[in-house]
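quick one, 168 residues, struct below
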Amino acid sequence: MTLYTLHDSPLGELLLTGEESPGGTVLTSLSMPGRRGGPGIGPGMRRDERAFAVATARLDAYFAGRLTRFELPLSAAGSEFRQRVWRALDDIPYGTTTTYGALAERLGVPRAEIRALAAAVGANPLLLVRPCHRVVGADGSMRGYAAGVERKVRLLTHEGALQLLPVG
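---
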């Protein structure tokens, strides 16, 4: 049975989905408002806030500045290549960024396949928990983010990876 909950955050209402397992709920997706291609709430899904109590407490701790790494049971459907890319996202330290090229080099992905790597990063179903927002362009530019570049900037600023300069 697919479970879900909605959780308020500084970035808007988050949708968490998961599957029941003998050890508890395994998180299968986390999406934000306006996410391109994000999951929705469908028939046969059951809302269950208690099933996501640990995940939502950790999200609250992250937004309060008390958590820098999510350690939750995760299970996202994807090809072996995507799974490899998504696992690599977990190793990008809080408060830092990396580039698509550096990520490709670390994974041994040929330069000709960087677009495939970027597509895998963009298809990450576990926004925020798997920190795809920490991947930026080679020139430091904010490349696309499934929940919008403005949210990517807010997350990186929250983590201290970006400094916003005062206007005026």
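The chain has a mean pLDDT of 92.
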